[in-house]
Design a protein that fits this description.
single chain; 661 residues; alpha/beta; 48% helix
Length: 661
């Protein structure tokens, strides 16, 4: 049985057919007489079908089924899987625990509960569940693989090796598992020896999490000159690396160079990195293209299009830029395959395209063929996906709120100037309405942002187990992390406190001091932690292009003449804050933030190029206190032949978790 994350992926093996079987059973079993029970059964069947592709929608359907029939067989298990699929382990764990309590002989329920507990950092509790799964399904290689994984994490290396041996015997055709077993056996036989190249992406064997004393931190580094050309030919001696300001010793060094022509200042150096194992599709249920037999993927690009926060016009511009990008990719791929007989470094990239709105929509699953990506981007279906992604967006509610603000301010100005009783009443009623609308907008933004960030985290989590070079290219108009901030800022701009108090007598002046809006760090930071720990680079491209004033936007409802300047300044501040979120994502993961620039195609080209030309540094921290706190990383390049004005891009740090990375 194969995992959703593919064979031998680090953490952990999942029985992929469990959902399909349960879906068929739910659809075919006789329906009970009670209407609510029949409805719950239908919701369960529909929800199960959506878990692999639209887990966010699946959660909603399964929650409805739970309200109708809490005792429906299989429901708790499927709801736990849906929560897990969106990265919500806190809600997944109790549902899967309930599923195990109701069906103690279910190996799948024990397995998934173990996976969730493992991902929450409770390896000891996970170990008990994996023991149960292996006992209930002794012929399932996944159960033994997971048990070995948990044993390794809890320090029982010898028992872990035995479980991996059993898993390998049960899956004799799984070459990756056999390779992993050999590496682990070698490591156990010589615990003080190091595995050559094991800390360099491309040489690390996925799944090799046997606990060792040495903890190495990997730091991919992109070095460019002032014109954006990648600098090749640098050596380990050209780099200095600091953690929290303390210089560290670089223990290992590797180079990845695409060989594509460019005007770099140094001569090209061939890559010294061995090709990694191919990764499985990040979204499991859809069919995907297979990598060419002659080339294993060395790098994976996820093109992630934010359809929730991005305007329709900007989505169209982003699509046009993506089409041009993959026309170039197809052309270059064809040239390099022809010239190098299908075994070029350039041709071993793979791509996946995802639209992320309220829930993720798979545009195209993993493929090494740029032509397939181009076909997906030009298909009519994409327009519908963009439209569906806008559903539930707070943009429409914000537009209604702005129109109400403009109408109310106009009425209040008229009431002040002409002492018009009708306008006084309209002003008073309008102030009550817009105050309530501001609260509703803030709550809507909080709800959809939580869902968006959890889905984003889930996508990062699905890329994390692989060991090739992984780059996420996020196209977005940007988004804030303080729900309601824009609504209350608009309220204050339209109705300053002094103006409200100056309104005519009998006009109700509701207090509208903005409530303190906490930054959504608890939802946002786990994305950065996960990407940094897995060395996933996220390049962000602000699809708004050059920042402008919204009064020139055709969709803008307009403002009164007296407020044009005030509103313009406020909206520029909000736009900058949305862009700052994108910059923070890029900075934390070693990516580049492209913003305030209409050359979206140039940003895309740079993002893909950075995934092909980079150095990897590895070091062992001199700070042995693994307390979970953030540690800042600084990389300097001081080669004698390098130009003065160079740019060094690397992740800004990592969180020193107690468990092995």
């Amino acid at each position: 049985m194969k995992s959703w994350l593919g064979p031998n992926r680090r953490l952990l093996r999942r029985p992929i057919f469990a959902i399909v079987i349960c879906a068929l059973a739910a659809a075919q079993a006789p329906a009970p007489d009670a209407p609510d029970a029949r409805d719950a059964k239908d919701l369960l069947a529909r929800g199960v079908q959506l878990i692999p592709t639209k887990p966010g929608e699946a959660v909603k359907l399964l929650q409805q089924a739970l309200r109708l029939d809490p005792g429906l067989p299989g429901l708790r298990y499927q709801l736990g899987l849906a929560y897990h699929a969106i990265g919500d382990e806190a809600d997944a764990a109790p549902e899967l625990r309930e599923a195990v309590d109701r069906a103690p002989d279910s190996a799948d329920a024990c397995n998934y509960l173990g996976i969730v507990l493992f991902e929450q950092g409770d390896a000891k509790a996970a170990l008990a569940e994996f023991h149960a799964a292996a006992r209930l399904a002794p012929k399932d290689p996944n159960a033994h693989f997971n048990l070995g994984e948990a044993m390794a994490r809890t320090g029982d290396g010898a028992a872990a090796v035995e479980e991996l041996r059993i898993a390998s015997q049960l899956a004799p055709t799984d070459a990756g598992l056999a390779r992993l077993l050999k590496v682990v056996e070698t490591r156990m036989a010589a615990p003080e020896a190091t595995i050559p190249g094991a800390t360099i992406p491309g040489a690390t064997i996925p799944g090799a999490t046997i606990k060792v004393d040495v903890r190495q931190v990997l730091v991919p580094v992109v070095v460019t000159d002032s014109e954006g050309h990648h600098l090749a030919g640098l050596t380990q001696a050209d780099f200095k690396l600091f953690e929290d300001g303390v210089e560290q010793t670089i223990m290992a060094f590797s180079v990845e160079h695409s060989g594509l022509p460019q005007s770099a200042t140094a001569s090209a150096t061939p890559s010294t990195t061995a090709p990694p194992l191919p990764i499985a599709p990040p979204l499991p249920a859809a069919p995907h293209g297979a990598a060419p037999a002659q080339s294993k993927p060395r790098r994976t690009y996820m093109i992630l299009i934010d359809t929730l926060h991005t305007s329709v016009n900007n989505l169209a511009s982003a699509r046009t830029a993506l089409i041009k990008l993959f026309q170039q990719e197809r052309s270059l791929n064809s040239q390099y395959v022809d010239s190098q007989h299908g075994d070029s470094q350039y041709a071993d990239s793979q791509y996946v395209v995802v639209a992320l709105g309220i829930s993720p929509e798979l545009i195209l699953n993993v493929t090494p063929d740029p032509g397939a990506v181009l076909a997906a981007l030009t298909a009519k279906r994409l327009q519908k996906v963009f439209g569906d992604g806008q559903f539930g967006s707070p943009n429409a509610e914000m537009e209604r709120f702005r129109r109400a603000l403009t109408d109310t301010r106009t009425a209040c100005d008229a009431a002040i100037q002409a002492s018009d009783n009708i306008m006084k009443a309209k002003c008073a009623a309008g102030l009550e309405v817009v105050t309530q609308q501001a609260r509703l907008v803030a709550e809507l933004e909080r709800t959809v942002t939580v869902g968006f960030l959890r889905q984003f985290r889930s996508l990062v989590a699905q890329l994390a187990p692989a060991r090739d070079r992984r780059t996420i290219v996020l196209l977005s108009d940007g988004f804030g992390l303080e729900p309601g901030k824009q609504a209350w800022a608009l309220m204050d701009a339209y109705f300053p406190r002094a103006l409200q108090c100056y309104l005519p007598p009998l006009v109700f002046c509701p207090p509208h001091d903005a409530p303190i809006s906490d930054r959504m760090s608890e939802e946002f930071e786990p994305i950065l932690k996960l990407a940094a720990a897995a060395n996933i680079t996220i390049d962000t491209i602000d699809s708004r292009g050059l920042y402008g004033q919204s009064e020139f936007d055709a969709s803008n409802p307009g403002t009164t003449a007296a407020l044009t300047g005030v509103i313009g300044r406020m909206e520029r501040d909000i736009a900058a804050a949305s862009g700052n979120t994108l910059r923070e994502i890029a900075d934390a993961t070693g990516g580049t933030a492209f913003h305030d620039n209409n050359d979206i195609l140039g940003g895309l080209q740079r993002a893909l190029a950075d995934g092909r030309d980079y150095y990897t540094l590895a070091y062992v921290s001199t700070n042995l206190n693994y307390d979970g706190k953030f540690r800042a990383i600084t990389v300097q390049v001081r080669g004698r032949k390098t130009p003065v004005n160079i740019m060094v891009n690397a992740k800004r740090g990592y969180w020193a978790a107690p468990s092995a990375q």
